[in-house]
User: Fold these one by one.
Assistant:
Number 1:
Amino acid sequence: MFETLSALFFAHVLADYVFQTQKMVETKDRASSIILHGLTVYLCAIVALGSIDWRIAVLAGLHFITDGLKAYWVKTRADDGIKPYLIDQLVHLVTVAGLAAIAPSLFADGVWAKDLSEGGLLMVQAWAPSAMLFTAGAIYATRAGGFAVGKLMIPFAAGAPAASLPKGGMMIGQLERGLIFLMFIAGQPAGIGFLIAAKSVLRFDAASKNEKAEYVIIGTLASFSWAIAIAILTLALHNGLNGLPLLEITRSKD
């Protein structure tokens, strides 16, 4: 099951945050854009799983419906904030997990799980799920987290510090979430404290005024929380791949 789940999670992240263009995002109220995105989800899932199955088409169809409902919500309620974004992602992840639970052997039945060498030595199944899981986790922590934090901060935009570089804040956010993710994966979560201290020093001037201080604190805590949550989720799924308890995030050296 966890091999299939890792592959489907990887496919979802690729479709939503790598191959989905800004134009597709801006025209989600058009059926053509949603259909194109649904097709991207379908193709990414086929490639990640290494197999073709009618249930993958069902997954893409559910993704299409979810995106359509979100576009309707945004258009009718003029609300493109954090709430519809989180609901949209939650529904996508639940459908991914649901398909993995219903059809756990999709990856095992695919070409990536087959012996590809004549001598019987090369087994992609041994490393591919972990590689896809950690790649997807890194992209989800950085890219998806950027959109989530950005939408969360929309109501507080009046207190935003003046930007010194175009998209500088976005880049800083991606880098800090990437570092947090790597620290957790490497088993060094204590390093996050040093990252917080470093950012506090560097952003001291911007945070010296009350409204700007609150804006920086909210954004920083939201960014760190997202990266930590995705890192823990990634490690839990990796434990599942290795037959360990999901909540055994760290292991004793003894």
Number 2:
Amino acid sequence: MKSGEARWDFFTNHAHVIFYLQAYPDRPLRQVALAIGITERAVQRIVAELEAEGYLKRTKVGRQNQYQIEGDVALCHPRQAHRTLQELLDWDASDAVADSLDDYKALENWKVGEHGSEI
């Protein structure tokens, strides 16, 4: 990709914030923003929304915040509502390198057409 070209992604900024905070729960939001490539203000808004929906819990530790992912919460879109956030995080964290989807153990229960068009 050339510098300055528009880019897109299958995951929203909300997902990227969750993925990052899962790996680095004690990082300042400024670092989250830099790592993801969005503004700190956008990260603050996303964290507030995720917190309001119950996906994220913020705890003050000294002068810093620490973030805890609430993995048992169902995903919010009706087509994925039968899945939890933890299932998505587990899938993202899987380091399986495979030639086919059969080798992705985290995806074995995700079937197209069962409840709509899931992953």
Number 3:
Amino acid sequence: MTAKTIPQEITTVLFDLDGTLINVDMHKFVPAYLEHLASCIDPQMPPRPFIDQMIRRTIELLDSDDGRQTNEQFYWQVIEQDLGIPAQQFRDGLDHFFRYNMELLSPLVQPLPLAAKLIQRCREKGLELVLATNPVFPRALVEARLNWGGMKTEDFSLITSFENSRYCKPNPHYFEDILAQLTCSAEQCLMVGNDTEHDLSASHLGMTTFLVDTWLIDRSPQFVADFRGSHLDLFRFLGQLPALS
């Protein structure tokens, strides 16, 4: 782990989810999710055009700076425009997916034994926790991945999902919206993630960053992590933060 002075003002830890708290290959998970969702929306609909269009539009959402609607509303709009699927049919399909198909994705998520201990260490320190996963999935699927990883939703003060978010990482507005819901400043926040662009972009606002390099996604040299190391290094790092309670 990089040797730097441990920040003493941290009160809140933002955790990325995929590749940080759970081991999941999103190149397999996303198409599998969309294929199941397509069958729930319309069993007669060919899944491939739906999958391709949803992925294309998600990439567009990641780059969007609009912010006039939630990410959920963005998907309502684009599937009606692109595929002629009314928003209510999309919502009904999601509900059916949550009830009957979502658990079929659980084998694609591998728990990280140390993850629950990372959360516990933060809780013991009195730190507030945010699950800062990129909000392109519905809340129920975010919670499911967290639970499959052996963690509890009630440990987090805020969980970002497509229902409550207007931006995505790496847009600084994503982090600004989180701060607006918390009683802390950027300087009091630690962002933990495995993506050199999406997660380290939190440094734009002045957040301290820790890059977990176990399953590193190296997209961009634009940002430099304040701290970097394995999950075990992160566990030790969290132990050096001052206790708040």
